[in-house]
Amino acid sequence: MAASFEYVFPAIRGLQAGRPYYTSMCPLHLIPKIFLFDEEEVAADVRAQRSINRSRLPDITRYLLENSEDYVFSAITASVDGALRFEPFSEEEATRNLGTLHVPMSSRFLINDGQHRRGAIEEALKAKPELGYESIAVVFFEDRGLERAQQMFTDLNQHAVRPSRSLGLLYDHRSEKAWLAKEMAQRVETFRGRVEMEKSTLGRRSAKMFTLSAIETATSALLADKQDQSLEERAQIGAHFWKVIAHHMPEWKLVKNNDLSGGEFRRDYICAHGIALSALAHVGRTLLAHHPDDWSDQLTALEGVDWSRTNKAWEGRALRGGKISKSHMCVRLTTAALKHRLHLPLSPDELATEKEADLGLPALS
What we know:
Elements: E1 6-16, E2 19-27, H1 31-34, E3 35-36, H2 57-66, E4 76-80, E5 85-88, E6 98-104, E7 109-113, H3 115-127, E8 135-142, H4 146-157, H5 165-170, H6 176-187, E9 195-196, E10 210-211, H7 212-222, H8 231-247, H9 250-256, H10 262-268, H11 274-290, H12 295-298, E11 319-320, E12 323-324, H13 328-342, H14 348-357
Parallel strand pairs: 3-7, 4-8, 9-10
Antiparallel strand pairs: 1-2, 1-6, 2-8, 4-7, 5-6, 11-12
């Protein structure tokens, strides 16, 4: 009888739904060799996995390469269509689920969860082969056919919930944009204690003024032309800008001083929403470029702006049918309205959007 070649993995045996499964560690250099993508040309109803989204791979690969000394990858889950054989180290109660998992080399390994991690690992190894000696956790299940594999995919993904963008920024200690947003929330007195750090939407009764994600989006737009300056210099510019803006925003002061509730603020005023923050940031970017020495003086014109939703000048710009719109088009139109007010030039995109919308000069007072 011909010798049977096999993979041998150190493993822990567990039990789910009355059936054994196995958890092991696999060197990264083996991942592309033994774990296969489901065939993408096969029709969806006879596949056990979604088609891989290759546009996601560069970001995951970059994350692995740029953080090779500080990355975290969760386990890959795979089905094996061969005969799995587990040999415990001993039959004693304490160790009988510790042992080695033997898998015939003729087996097919099908990824149920983690195909994008697998693809990123393959790409990263081309640039940094030494990563191949590190490992990733793998959970092995015995392949029980297409229907079971498809159900596994559904079960593994249907309860997965992505964290809110604000929470992702709060816990991100690598991104400069995340750091800047958190600095704005602390350095700007009006924002301090009034920024929702976990959720990316504000409830009707929330006392917060803005979300951390809205602060990040706006501050990134404000400082887009300042990438040649140090992180601390950008933080100082951003904090100064938002402090000056706050000085000219009586509605913000009312909320900060608890004279206006957060719910009333969002219900009644355009300046309570992320679209206003983004538009103000784009105005600030232009001011910093065209008025580097006296940009703060130019912002006094904001004091006469009527930010109330009842101001018909906002319809078609920040509002669509009386409701706040977060579209890029509306951000540009709101920015253009404020730039008209401050006598600032519009960008080519803003000019094109203004022409297309044909709303006329806005009367913001």
